[in-house]
Automatic annotation (TrEMBL):
A GO biological-process term: mitochondrial respiratory chain complex I assembly
Organism domain of life: Eukaryota
Coiled-coil ranges per UniProt: none
Protein name: NADH dehydrogenase [ubiquinone] 1 beta subcomplex subunit 3
Subcellular location: Mitochondrion inner membrane
Function: Accessory subunit of the mitochondrial membrane respiratory chain NADH dehydrogenase (Complex I), that is believed not to be involved in catalysis. Complex I functions in the transfer of electrons from NADH to the respiratory chain. The immediate electron acceptor for the enzyme is believed to be ubiquinone.
Annotated gene: Dvir\GJ21387
Entry keyword set: Electron transport, Membrane, Mitochondrion, Mitochondrion inner membrane, Respiratory chain, Transmembrane, Transmembrane helix, Transport
Amino acid sequence: MGGHHGEPYTVPHPSIYKVENVPQLLQVKEALARQGLNDPWLRNEAWRYEKKAFGTHRSRLTTFMFRGLGVGFCAFLATIAVEYALGVGKGQGGHGHGHGSEHGHEDKKHH
């Protein structure tokens, strides 16, 4: 069935991720060193700070908050256009008074 044209992804070599290249992790490393501690796994967090692949915190937050806004706005406009074309909501008298909602407006002549 599907031809094998190589892997669909490439796994980067771990040596490209260094604590020294990430100022935030370097601060953590130095703070630990001042207390006589060392975190050998700290380099495993360096990939998270690669701006080229993952962007900044602000860009990720913006993407998260506004993803789908364009599609949603287009759907909103399409809904308005369809309702306008079909005449949905026309002839109801405004303010939601339609189809027997004459509560409190009795004719006093019939009493």
